[in-house]
Design goal:
Structural class: alpha+beta
CATH superfamily of the largest domain: QueA-like
Largest sheet: 9 strands, mixed
CATH topology of the largest domain: QueA-like
Order of helices and strands: EEEEEEEEEEHEHEEHEHEEEEHHEH
Length: 362
């Protein structure tokens, strides 16, 4: 399968720069992959497509103030350090810009109370650094760090909490699980009152999820690993939902990846934690997820490949073309999509065979 199979044309002006207010006023494209129908609604209409007994699974990770601006000693050159994940103690995996100015042994200082030393390089072009400070690291980071926004967002965010979900609680992400940004506390309570279950898991989003795919054959792509945790309580809720014949609906691609990485078998999951580098693309057979809520994703990204695996590549690209025509807003602060079910196994097989035949003749 080729990277170009997941490309589409997107006018730059459709990339959302600011979020809509209130959160659930965003538009909602509703897809039925079985019938291949597309409907246009708003996110506050979501309840129309849910039934009592369905379970929504949210990623409750919180974005760290992970962007630090410092200066390299002794030259004073400006350096940006982006925290990806804590390896142990005060040692972190980071991205540093400009990278050539951050070699092993270099010291970067962030004011009087925080500094770091570059100790190693990573396989993905990042840096391992060790921090030096007096006091509590998290408090210093909260004072000095900035909440990072994706590079395609150029507007400054007036309220930094707007890039957090209303239910976030476990700090550790380098980016927000953006499908959840559409939910308000009131809407979540309304869904709960109508009999929809709300379950939570944690996956700390790393930038590797959003890095460009730089290989022609997507099967050669390697995902960056991310930490996840599913509690016994959430696992039991999922199993009870399945047993009652209701849907497990993943809110966002991070929830999808976590559920599928933790699945023991088809329809089977237990509480567990660990690291996952799961890469889902067409041909994958889903074990847990029955429906999904997601945003519109970058062309040729691993995220659009995941959605294509669920709803069908041709149908997803058709929906994206329609979204462009209807002037939907794209990416992190953009509009949402609800896939009410997944593509049938028969249709999935035919589509894969057609794609393989096409490439065999290229």
């Amino acid at each position: 399968m080729l990277l170009t199979d997941f490309d589409y044309d997107l006018p730059e002006e459709l990339i959302a720069q600011t979020p809509v207010e209130p959160r659930n006023a965003s538009r909602l494209m509703v897809l039925d992959p079985g019938q291949e129908t597309i409907e246009h609604h708003h996110f506050y209409d979501l309840k129309k497509f849910l039934t009592p007994g369905d379970t929504l699974i949210f990623n409750d990770t919180r974005v760290m103030p992970a962007r630090l601006i410092g200066h390299r000693e002794p030259s004073g050159g400006r350096v940006e350090v982006f925290l990806l994940r804590r390896l142990n103690g005060d040692t972190w995996e980071t991205l540093v810009k400009p990278g050539k100015k951050a070699q092993v042994g270099n010291v970067i200082r962030f004011g009087d109370e925080l500094a770091c030393t570059v100790t190693d390089h990573t396989d993905f072009g990042g840096r391992i650094v060790k921090f030096q400070y007096q006091g509590i690291f998290e408090e210093i980071l909260d004072r000095l760090g900035e909440t990072p926004l994706p590079p395609y967002i150029h507007e400054k965010l007036a309220d930094k909490e707007r890039y957090q979900t209303v239910y976030c609680r476990e700090e550790g992400s380098a980016a927000a699980p953006t499908a959840g940004l559409h939910f308000t506390k009131e809407q979540m309570q309304e869904l709960k009152d109508m009999g929809v279950n709300l379950g939570f898991l944690t996956l700390h989003v790393g930038l590797g999820t959003f890095r460009p795919v730089n290989v022609d054959n997507i099967e050669d792509h390697v995902m960056h690993k991310e930490y996840y945790c599913i509690t016994d309580e959430t696992a039991k809720l999922i199993m009870a939902t399945k047993a009652a014949g209701h849907r497990v609906i993943a809110v966002g691609t991070t929830s999808i990846r976590t559920l599928e990485a933790a699945a023991a078998a088809k329809g089977q999951i237990t509480g567990k934690s660990g690291w996952t580098g799961i890469f889902i693309y067409p041909g994958y057979e889903f074990k847990i997820v029955d429906a999904i809520i997601t945003n519109f994703h970058l062309p040729k990204s691993t995220l659009i490949m995941l959605i294509s695996a669920f709803a069908g590549r041709e149908f997803v690209l058709k929906a994206y073309k329609k979204a462009v025509e209807e002037r939907y807003r794209f990416f992190s602060f953009g509009d949402a999509m609800f896939c009410s079910g997944q593509q049938s196994p028969e249709k999935r097989k035919k589509e894969l065979q057609a794609l393989e035949h096409l490439h065999d003749n290229d």
